Amino acid sequence: MAVRAGIIGFGYMGQYHMKKSRQADDIEVVAAYDISADRLAEARTEGLRTYDSLDAFLGDDTIRLVMICTPNNVHAALSIAALNSGKHVMCEKPVTMNAAELEQVLAAAQRNHRVFTTHQNRRWNPDYLTVKDVVSSGIIGRPTTVISRVYGQRGVCFGWRADPLAGGGMLYDWGIHLIDQYLRMFPDQRVTSVYARLQSILTPAVDDSFDLEMIFDSGVCARVQVGTFCLEPLPRWFVYGDRGTLRVDDFTGRSAAMARIRQEVSGFDSVFGKQLGPSRTMAPLKPEFIETLKPPVFTEDELAYHRNLAAACEGREDALVTHEDMRRAMRVVDLAFESTRQRQVIKASI
Fold first, then answer.
1. Which of 57, 77, 262, 300 is an S-S bond match for 33, by CB 3.0 to 4.6 Å?
2. Model confidence band, residue 117 (pLDDT cutoffs 50, 70, 90)
3. C-alpha dihedral (262, 267, 270, 276), degrees to nearest 10
4. Domains held by the chain: number
């Protein structure tokens, strides 16, 4: 029997989770709560029971799982209320506004012996899986710098994402996903420093652009670059290894290129000539010294997250997004805000 679920916040993401749950066939969304009468009317057209009272919604004993899809600033309070009512909880990202709030939620989950997790679906994105596979395989050598970029052209954040009180801004919106990807890419390493520069370019109140740099204890530098106003494309990923490079152009992972240097390359003997390029140092290699490789291609399992969520609620599997995963990601977010305030690198052990 499918896990019966109720959604808090029947906007874009609430409807997304309803659709994914129906496709996965492991979760049956039966109810919705929202403060908007229009949203509740939409929910009724989907055949859901609707509530305009949180207490009444949480008092529905047929609901085993609550999916929280609201503005970020109420994630913690709603999660605690749902957990205290005996429900399992999936909260949209960012799971809370900071690490201190998260600890309060995790305490409620442990106290009530309920599943609590957050939505990190981009662990299954094909572009990310390509990069993760190449980095872990060592095919281009030891990674030295990995750059992850997400750029758009609209220029501004919209809706409540432009409201700082609601937890708007790109660090919360996209940053939390990209940080989680890096922490999964280097699972046995700790983040030793964080540097961030958050900017408000066209959206005055929140960050609509940011740069973030994490250094792991192996020395690898993981960079995140996000902006809402970029009219010329850049690669989604660029990976420097000590024997080669990988470029992934977009989220599909199918437009990509990879090359590595052959073992016998040594010094200037491998270049075309001293006059090519801006200098001898930057001169191109002869083609015979470069090996072109085909990057691996992955197909996204779009229902993996929701299938695991259902299995976790039924006690058949552990939730793939763990409490420790959430702790680490939120600590990085906290340090990114602190780094921006102080305009300096913040030492860490995350």
1. 57
2. very high
3. 130
4. 2
